[in-house]
Design brief:
Length: 255
């Protein structure tokens, strides 16, 4: 394994949510955890772990549930990828936020990420941005176009000022990547399911600072078969966009 490249800031802990059943990805997930579905020569999870290592992360906690043993058998302690991996296991699925209450030895802000995402985001950059902000939670956000299938009118009372036929509007969407302070655990009830939007809402209602980190790099939510195919096409077209040359060389040498 090649040494970690120099970065302007060395970061440490990431938490990956890798317990989903992936029912919308069938038949790929009939006997395989969603995080172990393949994109080219790699599993989704391996790509993420390699990206995190290059970004300067030294520890990853995998929050597992469905087919947890298969994930552990594939990744083990992470030494094969040059990164320390440990596990927390929710026997009953707890959602996308409640598993954070099971993470041990979590003492500083961690990147919390869904385990079914392909992106070229700079993970070190979003971590550094969060630390500078003093926020309790940072949500990675990306603009997403929404097509309006009607003519949209702009009015002043009853007077129509303009009309635009079937416009496309852009909204900021959460992409399943957050930087989270361990203090959020006080908002999580042990054993009770909780999703990330519920945690964000609880923090805002309590007056805590929650901020957005906007980015424009490629991003794919690999939750459906069409999305998996689109992500695979993008990855095969430009692997260097998603993985450092050293990581690509590692796979070439082992194949």
């Amino acid at each position: 394994m090649r040494p970690l490249p120099n970065r302007r800031e060395i970061v440490s802990h990431a938490i990956l949510l890798a317990g989903g059943k992936g029912s919308r990805l069938r038949p790929y997930t009939d006997e395989t955890p969603k995080a172990l579905v393949r994109i080219g020569d790699y599993t989704i999870l391996e790509i993420i772990l390699r990206q995190l290592r290059v970004a300067g992360f030294t520890r990853v906690t995998l929050c597992v549930s469905h087919l947890a043993g298969m994930v552990a058998d594939a990744i083990r302690d992470g030494s094969g990828l040059g990164i320390a991996v440990d596990y927390c296991h929710d026997v009953v699925p707890l959602g996308t936020a409640a598993p954070l209450g099971l993470v041990q030895d979590w003492t500083s802000p961690a990147l919390v990420m869904n385990g079914d995402i392909l992106t070229a985001m700079d993970f070190a950059d979003v971590m550094a941005s969060h630390r500078r902000s003093g926020a309790m939670l940072t949500v990675a956000a990306r603009q997403h176009p929404l097509a309006v299938p009607f003519g949209v009118i702009d009015t002043d009372g009853e007077q129509i000022l303009s009309i635009t036929e079937k416009p496309s509007v852009h909204v900021d969407v959460s992409v399943g990547i957050q930087i989270v302070d361990p203090g959020v655990r006080t908002y999580i009830t042990e054993g009770a399911p909780m999703d990330m939007p519920d945690l964000v809402t609880a923090l805002i209602k309590d007056g805590r600072t929650v901020r957005a980190h906007r980015f424009s790099e490629p991003w794919f939510d690999i939750g459906t078969v069409p999305n998996l195919r689109a992500a695979t096409k993008a990855f095969d077209a430009d692997r260097g966009r998603f993985l450092a040359e050293s990581e690509l060389s590692d796979v070439a040498a082992s194949s």
